[in-house]
Amino acid sequence: MTEPPNDGLDRARLDAGLTHSELWLRYFGLGGMSTALQVEAFCYGVLRPSAHDHDVVAHALNERFVELGGNHPVAYSDIERMDP
Amino acid sequence: MPGDRDTSPPDQVLERIAAIPAGHDVVDGCLRLVVALTQASVEGADGVSVSLQRHGRLTTVAATDQTILDMDARQYATGEGPCVDASVEGHWFHAESLDHETRWPTFTPKAKRLGINAILSNPLVAENGPVGALNIYSRTAAAFSPKERALASTFASEASILLRVGGVDVSDRRLSERLGAALRNRHIIAQAEGVVMEREGISEEEAYTSLRVISQRDGRPLAERAADVVDSTRRTRSGLPAPKKTGP
Known about the structure:
CATH class of chain A: Mainly Alpha
Largest sheet of chain B: 5 strands, antiparallel
Structural class of chain B: alpha+beta
Strand content of chain B: 5-15%
Largest interface: A-B, 24 and 28 residues
Distance between the termini of chain B: 67 Å
Oligomer: heterodimer
Order of helices and strands of chain B: HHEEHHEHEEHHHH
CATH class of the largest domain in chain B: Alpha Beta
Distance between the termini of chain A: 22 Å
CATH architecture of chain A: Orthogonal Bundle
Helix content of chain B: 40-55%
Largest sheet of chain A: none
Number of domains of chain A: 1
Number of helices of chain B: 9
Strand order of the largest sheet of chain B: 2-1-5-4-3
Order of helices and strands of chain A: HHHH
Number of helices of chain A: 4
Shape of chain A: globular
Number of strands of chain B: 5
């Protein structure tokens, strides 16, 4: 796996209309193990998530985008960029 | 102190504060600032507080002094008063003069004994409805002119934005429902990971990735796809035909 692309997570969170606590709850529901504060730090790029953690956050965001009628715009660690 | 004051209109100050990413401590700190700004800005405001729903009941998270804390506490205890009604009903309540107030017969005499003569409560409204109130108390009857009432409403609106930005938009009951759903999802995903690990002879992380890729491909939530995987093993054990295979 390549390095997780952790830039832009907070931009995606804002575009998805999720608060930090809502994002964490979704991340937690997908099996994420990091705390709410850690996930917030991932979003801001203050803390670098593992590739797996990045992908769980990305998937939490992407599931929200699907609910909003979109696709999977947030890139996963093993894919350069998905088409929006 | 005079001379050191930010000369921006209070609503602009609050908009800037609302842009700060906030946790609960930050939200409470901002609400204390809202209370101070409201008292400084609304003419006739002798005391101000913010009530919020926490752990299923109203509680005061910021107040200018002990008398105001007592005022709020008496409303919570009697279940009456503009603060309680604004928090529950989601619109403002104005007791212009407690001498002529009849809506809260148990609470009003207690307020008057503490020297309060007028109260203005504006609701704090988060995403899912009212969650509290911004309460302004005056010792002077008819203290709040239409202009002051409009200013108070602006403060309450901006404080509501703070609450939404801070994520204070989920009642305790709703939060516990959502946590319950999150735990069920975690459980079903963990079960499906186990099934895929056994079937494919791969690691836990690889199994998760496999499920996630399928969820992504089908545009269906991961927990739903995980439930399909777990369900397929039940069908196999019971001898039922497996549904058409679309994933691991």
